[in-house]
Amino acid sequence: MAEHYDAPPQEHRSPWMDVWLAFRNHTGALVGVGVFSFMVLAVLVGPFLHGVDPQYLDILTRNAGVSWTHPLGTDNLGRDVLAQMLAGGRVSLAVGFTAMLLSLVFGTAVGVLAGYFKRVDGLLMRTTDLFLALPLLPLLLVIIMLFRDTLRLAFGPETGIFLLIVFVIGITSWMQTARIVRGEVLAIKEREFVTAARGIGTRERRIVVRHVLPNVMSPIMVSATLGIANAIITESALSFLGLGFPPDFPTWGRLLFDGANFISITPARVIWPGLAISLTVLSVNYIGDGLRDALDPRLRGT
Amino acid sequence: MTRGRAVSRRRTLTIVLAATVLAACGPDKAAPNESLASEVENRHVNVLYWQAVSTMNPYLSGGTKDVEAASLVIEPLANYDDKGEMVPVLAAEIPTRENGGVADDMTSITWTLKRDVVWADGTPFTARDVVFTGEYCLHEEIGCSADASFTDVQILEALDDHRVRLTFSVAKPVPYGPFVGAITPIIQYEQFKDCTGIRAPECTAENFGPVGTGPFKVDEFRANDVISFSANELFRESGKPWMKTVTLKGGGDAASSARAVLETGEYDYAWNLQVEPEILDQMATAGKGEVVMAFGTNVERLVVNQTNADAGFGPERRSLLLEGTNPHPFLADPVVRRALSLAIDRRLLVEAGYGPSGRVTCNIVPAPPSYASTANERCRKPDADEANRILDEAGWIPGADGVRSKGGIRLSILYQTSTNSVRQGTQALVKQMWQQIGVETELRNIDGGVFFGSDPASPDTFQKFYADVQMYTSNFQGADPEFYMAAWVCEEAPDPGNQWLGTNVARGCSAEFDGLAERLAATPYGDERFEIAKRMNDIVVQNHFLIPLVWRASTSARSMSLKGVRMNPWDSELWNIEDWHR
């Protein structure tokens, strides 16, 4: 007891401070944060600095190389590649994040409920199996065909499609998260501290929120990072099939697809969007990696 | 059609890449003891159709890819050569009034068949096969895709083993619809006799492997993938075909199939290359192949919806003509349609998307010359000022966002087409041109398989036309536009009554046009016929139901070693495959 009193008061740290200290030691994660912040900042601020309309066509300057007016050159219709990259990044990042959040919330909820409450386990897991068994692309086709016009009328072509795509991607990618989370929850709910909490009369809701959820944070983080990548790529595939955004509405995935045939004429059209997608996915993965290590007290400090 | 190929500056990377590719797949079969193997390989031709072939029976498909694949095996009585002239194939000669083949009252035509033609299974080819083919397509339950060619056919009869007479219900001055061209080839009675009517689609073995009289026969058919052919030893012309085997592969897209012929040399022939001109040029510098093209009647056009396609409407009203009671809120205004056409700089569209394989056109029937109208040449020069002026005059006033409106109706257009990078480029250009006259455009692209799929259950087919404006290419076979233009009469507007297969996709109606269509069918070749056809073209174009944009060449690629390819825009591109050699 006496030693505790002797401990200097400034060494008292909040748990979040511990997390930050551990996170700070993860070089990959720090670089990831740097790259990712740069991406976000660039797409948010960039269009104000580089004030070229990404959709403006100037056929006279098509397939142009690097110049002061077009720092990344132009495409085959004379659109500025940098402006398109910045505009496309906004959409791609927004789609990636929102869809990831949606699938994360949904997947975690299903996973925790199924793992913790035995009564709904069978039902929820069979539903998960059902969704896993559904062929993704035909399902997307049907959903988009059914709701496209309704949403377009209600929210306009771009917002409507944004909501639809985010929803569609979210609703078709939560299953893995649900399964992983359920497995972890099943293991954790048998642990002593949960039994103890139950023993002193803690309510179920509180046990889930205070004791179970923080312990399944690491698999959730990993799912989240993979989810962003997945969402960006699914959006590209949809755009390519003509089911996504209007064809002149740039997203990284669409820029990449459109540029593919021009790889030997204007390589910049493929390199930049490809690099942007890769860097985003990679940096988010590293951030997730660092967060997982930092959030897990057993790994922290090793 | 020769083609000037500008050699633009290349990046070193391209040259290095191309050189590597060349080195990797160059001809390395020089060893003398392999001469036999190389001879077999030499006499094999690899053809690439990026739209995969789904059936070998053109009566059940109508897709160009299926018709052309089938043309290797089954043949019509006559087809069109690369000049658009009719040449006899299974017929001994082309029936005319001079040689007595066409009756003086023009209600019947008698075809005389070549003698000693045998099917690939050795049985003789007779008039019974021809009559059977006609009955097969005319059967009420089959849903024959070539039935337009059989319009007004009343009686089909075999006069003897080598003569067939077709009698029409009306006088047909131009009776060369049935059995002419690759869309109506002769199928074998023995093989298909149990496959008529409702059973037609069920005869998979027959539809995938028809017995024919053509230069090749089917060895293996894998639907939507690859077809293997080998030479028909019983082909009527001795010593032909020069090629012993053919592989016809489907799948991929236009750019990758162009690459396979022009750049890597894996394939000998690739079909329908709607690819940006700079990409084709760049691929062609690899020296493995060359682009072949010929101008037929392909016209890339905008189709302007004359009915209300409001997404708020249910299927009982949306894009339905309903006898003119459902007009489009603003595209029914001729001033708006005219302004849309005036604003378009067609020269730019050609330059960006087509290069030498496209020309500016103001006519929906651009060829042959005798049918091409000269009354619309003003469209070659875009005039956005005039467009703005007439819109102002008609009361369409720009709002705060620059978009014109009148009485609460905004000029906001949903513009759809199939997924293809050239088409998306054209869409973007047109959108910008329309922006200059205060018209807002939303673009949509739909997968080609769906858009052209004609599935009555899909909302995204070009016939359903749940949009304001759409763009695609269409053409006609042979050198006479009668059936082509007859398709745009008022009553042909697509609706549930015709399973959405109606052909007047713009849903535009003109009493004068409908009258002329009837007159055209009854007018023999000559100046009067040409004038009527031109007038019909002018009605459609000047009413801007259809806005012609680009006259497109049929564009394919052949490898340098493949000789004898004669590009034919009037019939199947593979029409003379028996003459292909190395």
Percent strand of chain B equals: 15-25%
Radius of gyration of chain A: 23 Å
Helical percent range of chain B?
Answer: 25-40%
Helix content of chain A: over 70%
Number of helices of chain B: 16
Q: What is the subunit arrangement here?
A: heterodimer
Shape of chain B: globular
The helix-strand sequence of chain A is HHHHHHHHHHHHH
**Morphology of chain A:** globular
Unreliable parts of chain B = 1-31
Query: What's the pLDDT, averaged over the residues of chain B?
Result: 86
Counting DSSP E segments of at least 2 residues, the number of strands of chain A comes to: 0
What order do the helices and strands come in, and which of them pair?
The complex is a heterodimer of chains A (302) and B (582).
Chain A: H1 2-6, H2 15-24, H3 27-49, H4 81-116, H5 118-133, H6 136-155, H7 157-171, H8 175-188, H9 192-199, H10 204-212, H11 217-240, H12 252-259, H13 268-295
Helix pairs in contact in A: 2-13, 3-4, 3-13, 4-5, 4-7, 4-8, 4-11, 4-12, 6-7, 8-11, 9-10, 11-12, 11-13, 12-13
Chain B: H1 12-25, H2 35-42, E1 44-49, H3 64-70, E2 78-80, E3 86-88, E4 108-112, H4 127-138, E5 153-160, E6 163-168, H5 189-192, H6 204-208, E7 216-221, E8 226-231, E9 245-250, H7 254-262, E10 269-270, H8 277-284, E11 289-304, H9 334-343, H10 346-353, E12 358-360, H11 384-393, E13 397-398, E14 404-406, E15 409-410, E16 412-418, H12 421-435, E17 440-446, H13 448-451, E18 469-474, H14 482-486, H15 511-521, H16 527-542, E19 546-559
Parallel strand pairs in B: 1-9, 1-10, 16-17, 16-18
Antiparallel strand pairs in B: 2-3, 4-6, 5-6, 7-8, 8-9, 10-19, 11-18, 11-19, 12-19, 13-14, 14-15
